[in-house]
Specification:
Layout (H helix, E strand, L loop, with lengths): L1 E7 L12 E3 H7 L7 E6 L9 H11 L3 E3 L2 H8 L6 E5 L13 E6 L9 H10 L4 E9 L2 E8 L7 H23 L6 E6 L11 H13 L2 E6 L12 E4 L8 H11 L3 E3 L2 H7 L2 H10 L7 E4 L4 H10 L4 E4 L9 E4 L2 H12 L5 E5 L5 E8 L2 E9 L20 E4 L6 H14 L3 E9 L2 E9 L14 H18 L3
Parallel strand pairs: 1-2, 1-3, 3-4, 9-10, 9-11, 11-12
Antiparallel strand pairs: 5-8, 6-7, 7-8, 13-16, 14-15, 14-16, 17-18, 17-20, 18-19, 20-21
């Protein structure tokens, strides 16, 4: 159970503040306490000045192992920016906000904002800069929106703004108390990050339910959360990402934040970084002799490059953007004209493009690997009338059929290639895509956050697949020890 405390500067009158408010001096003098509940500190002191009471409040909270917002790292990040704040850009803001064509000021409290048109923006900013109180100033700039993000202290708020903050903070504490007191006590708390709006989710609802059930059997409370709901990552012991990952994306930021806070994370930031960029994988495969198809990295579409591609790869040629998932960003070209057109198009999005020899097979192997051990094996057949597993150009039959096999019935060359490729990336949960031709295995790519759907990848192992994955969380948590 958590005790939530609001800490304010000593010179602030606390008479009209919520009952769980205390001054910095009280926090300095009275804590930590013997046999105290888990403490959550919401630091409302002014943190704009280095070595201020606000700075020391977060510093002491981290030393006392109290969960705190903002963290010292975030304070320093904001302090190291512009003296007047940090400027960021946003493209999608309701233009009605700028009806008067004047800069718009808004107060963000724990990711909440009074103007509903700014709700999504406030959530995004709070995820990037988890600070209890932020002031943002929005200015329209040639179709984009420039946003000045600044810290703000309680003393600078008017009466209406304070009332809004107490409502938000009171609701925050109330919800968390109710949640903690109404459920069975588990030793570990795990957040499973999902996106219900995602078209191609890594796990369907049946798989999510089975992960929850397996976690509880092992003594872990599993909370299914979205990016907008996970404002304070350090209240959890582990993070399981079941949303498609990308580098310039909240999945990567949350993985980094979770790892920095000592959580067990699947997949970890290094795995996301390595798997999400096919240039890294190609280079690593080459130097560590992982069997793979011949691949060239190109940065121009000049005649000498085109000649080299035709000479070394021949048509058809497969072109890939370095970042992409579920067969997106992958194209097949059959002649020089389409090669030139597609390369020029892809170079608009990336400085580098991968060109790979084409090898058709009726199906691709997918080997699920966790911590260097093969868990499951699937054969994914090509989509109807298409050369890939996924066909995003049609509304129906977007993917082909599948077979799920025990790993001991998988060709040895496929398993060996999968384990070697996984070792290049790390010790996380990966799906290794492999083509098999004439008993030769060729690794296509390593996917972090691989598909695990009820009725497909679990077809052979059933509930045991979920137990094995959650058992790995438990093993890592036990190694880490109780926080």
């Amino acid at each position: 159970m958590y005790t939530t405390l609001l800490v304010v500067d000593d010179d602030l009158d606390v008479a009209d503040l919520p009952a769980n408010t205390l001054s910095f001096e009280d926090y300095l003098r009275d804590y930590p306490k013997l046999h105290e509940n888990r403490i959550r500190i919401i630091n409302l002191c002014d943190t704009r000045r280095y070595l201020s009471q606000g700075y020391y409040c977060s510093l002491l909270a981290e030393a006392r192992r109290h969960d705190v917002l903002p963290s010292v790292r975030v304070i320093n990040t904001l302090r190291n920016g512009d003296e007047q704040g940090i400027w960021i850009k946003a493209e999608r803001v309701d233009q009605e906000v700028f009806r008067d064509e004047k800069p718009v000021r808004a107060l963000i409290c724990m990711g909440e904002v009074e103007d509903p048109r700014l709700k999504t923006l406030a959530t995004t900013i709070f995820q990037q800069y988890p600070v209890p109180l932020l002031e943002v100033t929005l200015s329209a700039d040639q179709g984009n929106v420039l946003i000045l993000v600044q810290r703000i202290g309680l003393a600078q708020l008017n009466t209406e703004e304070r009332h809004f903050c107490w409502q938000v903070l009171g609701e925050y504490a109330r919800i968390r108390w109710r949640k903690q007191s109404s459920r069975k006590k588990y030793r570990w708390d795990l957040a499973m990050l999902v996106n219900p709006q995602e078209a191609s989710r890594p796990s369907n609802q049946g798989a999510v339910s089975r992960f929850i059930r397996a976690g509880r059997r092992l003594g872990m409370q599993v909370d299914v959360v979205t990016a907008g709901e996970i404002s304070q990552i350090n209240q959890y012991d582990a993070l399981f990402i079941r949303e498609t990952t990308a580098i310039d994306h909240h999945t990567y930021r949350l993985a980094c934040e979770a790892e920095q806070n000592g959580l067990v994370v699947l997949d970890d930031p290094d795995s996301i970084l390595r798997c999400c960029n096919k240039v890294f994988l190609h280079d690593a495969f080459h130097y560590q002799k992982v069997p793979s198809l011949k691949t060239l990295v190109v940065n121009r579409a000049d005649p000498s490059t085109l000649d080299q591609l035709e000479r070394e790869l021949g048509y058809p040629i497969v072109l890939k953007l370095p970042e992409g998932s579920f067969s997106r960003g992958v194209f097949k070209v059959d002649n020089r004209e389409s090669l030139i057109d597609k390369l020029k198009d892809l170079f608009k999005n990336s400085a580098l493009v991968l060109a790979q020899e084409y090898l058709y097979t009726d199906y691709d192997w997918r080997i699920g690997v966790l911590n260097g051990r093969a868990l499951y094996a699937c054969r994914y057949y090509m989509a109807r009338n298409h050369w890939q597993i996924y066909n995003h150009g049609v509304k129906r039959h977007t993917s082909g059929n599948f077979d799920t096999l025990p790993t001991f019935e998988t060709p040895r060359s496929v398993l060996n290639a999968a384990l070697k490729a996984a070792a290049v990336v790390g010790k996380g949960l990966y799906g290794i895509d492999i083509k098999l031709k004439d008993n030769h295995a060729y690794v296509i790519e390593v996917n972090d956050n691989p598909n695990i759907d009820q009725g497909i990848e679990d077809k052979y192992l059933g509930e045991e697949l979920y137990m094995q994955i959650m058992s790995e969380f438990l093993r890592r948590l036990e190694l880490r020890g109780a926080q």
